[in-house]
Amino acid sequence: LTSQAYEAAGAARAARRRLSAAFWRRPWLRGLALLLPPLGWLLVFYLAALAVLFVSAFWTLDSFTGKLVHVWTWTNFDTILTDPTYRQIAFRTIWMAAAVTVTDAVVAFPFAYFMARIAPPRARTLLFVLVLLPLWSSYLARIYAWRLILNDDGALNWTLGRLGLPEQGWAFTNTAMWIVFSYIWLPFMILPIYAALERIPDSYLEASRDLGARSWTTFRRVILPIALPGVVAGSIFTFSLTLGDYITPSLVGNVDFIGNVIYRNVLGLTNNLPFAAAYATVPLVVMAIYLLLAKRAGAFEAL
Amino acid sequence: MSRIRRRHALLAALAAALCVPAAGVTSTAADPSVITKIGKGEGSLNLIAWEGYVQPQWAKPFTKATGCKVKAKYGGSSDEMVTLMRTGQYDAVSASGDASLRLILGKDVRGVDPKLVPDFKNFIPALKSPPHNTVKGVHYGISLQWGPNTLLYNTKKVKPAPRSWSILYSSKYKGKITVPDNPIQIADAALYLSKTKPGLGIKDPYELTESQFNATVDLLKKQRPLVKKYWASAGDEIDLFKNGGAWVGASWPYQTNTLQATKAPVKDLIPKEGATGWADTWMISAKAKHPNCAMQWIKWVSTPKVQAQQAIYFGETPANTKACAIMNKLSKGSCAQYHANAPTAYFNSIKFWKTPVKDCGNGKSNCMDYSKWQQAWTDIKS
To answer: Nearest Cα to B294, choosing from B56, B15, B43?
Structure first.
């Protein structure tokens, strides 16, 4: 019995050796074996889903029977482009995504700069933890926390009252959404900028100083151009995350975003999946354009 | 001997053959999908319900009595309930009148024989075969509870106490108003206009011609900047009133009860223009995997005790007239408070939710249907 088990183990070992030899002799086979599972996953769950989404955007819903009509038509896209309501909602979403991105870039840059170039190693670790810690708690819990802060009887107004300052009425406004969005996506901006800043060799800054540049000139002509791809990389996150969110608007805002319209068309109002699919292509197109521009700015090298 | 036996068998078969069509004629169960008997329970039950409709105080004893474990998902609106029911993953739904007909016409629900529910005979006559759940003599579900949509206000901040829905359309409380995020809300505005602008000629707030509809939508667009938040769930509105975000709003009695239980200074009323309201029906899905448990549940929630418990918990009126005495036992004066002994005139004064359709009920079909309502609502909110 023991010898049998030994033989089987030997056979298995031989097979393994043959396999690794095959991989060694044909490097393309190795690449294929490594890439096939993730590529297959991507193909089936991501690209195929996108294709179905795009195709169904050209169908319509019979409002009487609630059944899909499989006839190719531009109706949905026509409604999106011509109906001022949907245009307004799309522009509002894009505008908010841009505002949040700019805010996060402005807030994150000095923070990341301090982390990467000024803070001593131990403080840097601590700052890292502080940046990442919110990501460990639920996104919903953080949004609800902001509701409690911004409410009319909330923590912020209480503090303002104590300080003798006038109360704010930001609850359920676009200002509230802007604050909450900027807060929840901030770590996604800090980390790429940090990575970009950390990569700048000290010798560059020394050379700049040796050539007579003042700090501001060094920042403007050396640091900023090298860090810019990092900022653009971070902006991809903040912009796309804001563009696709519908929970924050429904919890802290009082207006619809693209995501809310899609949500209500899928579950809630009409079950009009074709229209939801058509509207979902709006953020897809916006993101495609954004990514093209980001690629030009070299953001993909900074990731 | 064997011949005689064979003759007996023949006779029996003949008798049976004669009986079957007779039974088919007398019972409502001509359609095989109609539930005519309750079999053995399946051990579990998936429900879609309004918040507050599946409370442990009556769901737990139900599980104990029948062995059916209850899982409930709250629906935020009738639209959401219809969509969820069409997934086929749920056994039953507590559908309001604006969802029930859509479900019946979409063949999403099964008929039930009311004889299976012993308490049915004690229901108020208006809810035995109401048009929102009984079509061509087939009962698609059993009525449950009904009530008005009320005006809720903060007694400390809103003075004098409001008497009219006009408070929701005036700028006096700008930024302190909350209304449901629901297209059926258009009917509330239409009801208000039917009293304040009789020139428009609105008779039924769910049957609006284009000009009546446009006038209503205009009113709601003017209301838009006054609204702090369009609430999506009852919990949302409770939060708003607790945190001072809203002082006055369109509401259900459930929110009032919940807020008053936490000693929040709120009251509600039916304003002088009258109110829209709901009459809910438990309906069983055509694809129900646990139809026997669902029937057991309908039987259970129709009993006077559960009817009384739910009426007091949610603040609505039970369909079962026998619930009144138990309500008073549970909470003194609650039978009158929730109108369980009110005359039929009170029932008739409420404009119950129903699905707006093209057919105006006067032979003309120039009314705005529900898809128009939904479009208008997105437009109003944007």
So the answer is: B43
